[in-house]
Amino acid sequence: MRVIISAGGTGGHIYPALAIIDKIKDMEPQSEFLYIGTHNRMEKDIVPDKGIPFKTIEVYGLDRKHIFKNIKTLNCFFKAYKQCLHIIREFKPDIVIGVGGYVTAPLLYAAHKLKVKTYIHEQNSVPGASNKFLARFVDGIGVSFKSSLEYFPKKKTTYTGNPCSESAFKAEPILKTELGLSANKKLVLIVMGSLGAYRVNKYLSTIIGQFEHKDYEVLFVTGKNGYEEFTSKKIPHNVKIVPYINGLTRVMKRTDLIVSRAGASTLSEIISLGIPSILIPSPYVPNNHQYKNALDLVKCGSALMIQEKDLVDNILVEEIDKLINDEIALKNMHKKLKEQMISNSASLIYKEIRKLIDRK
User: Fold this and answer.
1) CA dihedral 14, 16, 19, 20 (to 10 degrees)
2) What residues contact residue 357 under an 8 Å CB cut-off, 6+ apart?
3) Would you kindly state where each structural domain of the chain is located, as residue ranges?
4) Which class for 106: exposed (0-12), middle (13-18), buried (19 or more C-beta within 10 A)?
5) Are 215 and 237 in contact (CB under 8 A)?
6) What is the CATH number of domain 2-161+343-358?
7) What is the sign of the dihedral through the CA atoms of 161, 15, 202 and 228?
8) Which of 100, 99, 105, 108 is nearest to 138 (CA)?
9) φ, ψ for residue 73 (rounded to 5)?
10) What sign results for the dihedral spanned by CA atoms 45, 61, 201, 171?
């Protein structure tokens, strides 16, 4: 299989794209790939490090606040579209795949014009602008949330889950003792992404002492930008603070309760692993999509949500205490998550892609 794949801007798009690549490699080891990314976002560092052939195009998202900036955006789109036509003709892919981010729009539109098979995947509960635009042109669509089905044409849309969930399901659990934690105490994991969340970290720095004398342990991953805040503070003996953990999924498999953002990839792992959660969605993302992602889980009883603006007094400690000590609530959440779980998401996506290629 010859594949051009594109996703950009955030790990929430890039890592699902890499999971799809890994699954295709598993199923068809002789496959060849070309990854198209932006010239100035994180994929330009992540993807080449994986040994995947990588090309960049200059493209920008629409600016809703400064309308005149969109003249440059549209000019870049058409220039990137022409560049993508050339790339597709040269590479001769069997399929072109978009996994989110505005970088995918000119590429998938060019593939459509050249009558090359196309597939997009939407990770969030509410689709981004690029996937909304592309939905009418592509041959197949996969979604991570059932609620997303209403946004896309029914005949070509499949509920696949998020491809990151499959690798999470297969991850080997870590020994808690490797992290300096007790093997027999409940674990609360607090993590807000690789860089952390400034507002949440500031709040936690004021209430971290409230975890003293709890009968559970807390592992707080501050993010690389937030660790310094805690180096001069007195930390309770049952709280461990680290800036970053490599292989976080392995820790999640030993976690009894997670407090996290509500990015699509994170939620896919939470669902796959059946971890009860308290979600603090980021309010700084397009279309408030993390709030809407979290709402999907809250509505079916598989998570709790605290909005960042409501982080006052001891609300987080109180909610953690209440939930971690309520075995019935934890079991109910776990059961509800299992009902939503798709453990073979990447495999389902591969099958959809293969069907499109094989279709005459």
Assistant:
1) -100
2) 1, 94, 95, 117
3) 2-161+343-358, 169-340
4) buried
5) no
6) 3.40.50.2000
7) positive
8) 108
9) -60, -45
10) negative
Confidence of residue 42 (pLDDT cuts 50, 70, 90): confident
Residue 131's closest CA among 6, 237, 233? 6
Query: Which has the closest alpha carbon to 22: 40, 36, 3?
Result: 3
CA distance 203 to 231: 15
Q: By the 8 A CB rule, do 203 and 271 touch?
A: no
Q: Which residue has the higher pLDDT, 128 or 27?
A: 27
Tens digit of pLDDT for each residue in 204-238? 999 999 999 999 999 999 988 889 889 889 999 99
Q: Is the pLDDT of residue 15 over 80?
A: yes
Indicate if 169-340 has the same CATH topology as 2-161+343-358.
Answer: yes
Please state the pTM of the whole predicted model.
0.87
Higher pLDDT, 189 or 233: 189
Q: Which residues, including other chains, have CB under 8 Å from residue 1's CB and lie 6 or more apart?
A: 24, 28, 31, 32, 94, 95, 353, 354, 357
Beta-ladder partners of 57: 38
Class level of CATH domain 169-340: alpha beta
Answer yes or no: are the C-beta atoms of 323 and 257 closer than 8 Å: yes
